[in-house]
Design brief:
This protein is an all-alpha fold. The protein has five helices and no strands. It starts with a helix and ends in a 5-residue tail after the last helix. The protein has one domain. About 75% of the residues lie in helices and about 0% in strands. It is elongated and about 50 Å long.
Length: about 100
Amino acid sequence: MDDFVNQLLKDINVPDSMDPEVKKEMTEELRDRADRFVISRMLDAMSDEDLDAFDKLSAEKPDDADALREFLDGHVPEKDRVMAAALLEFRATFLGAKA
């Protein structure tokens, strides 16, 4: 995800001379947004049964990111395709183009 976010920042011409702290905050915020977007698309791709199980897991272990990611890895059909499509859609939206 870091390479993806760094490329987005280059695509919008974020200068290398930008204050490092501001750039770090910008990078973290963009990474969080992209991550949430991808996860939402992964949830959309899950069956209702798996979505219910994910909801239960996230209620039981809301701070266990590893357990939540592991669940997604095992329950999203064609996960790599869904992820790639989500990243392309996020990029297009971020850059102001249609996906």
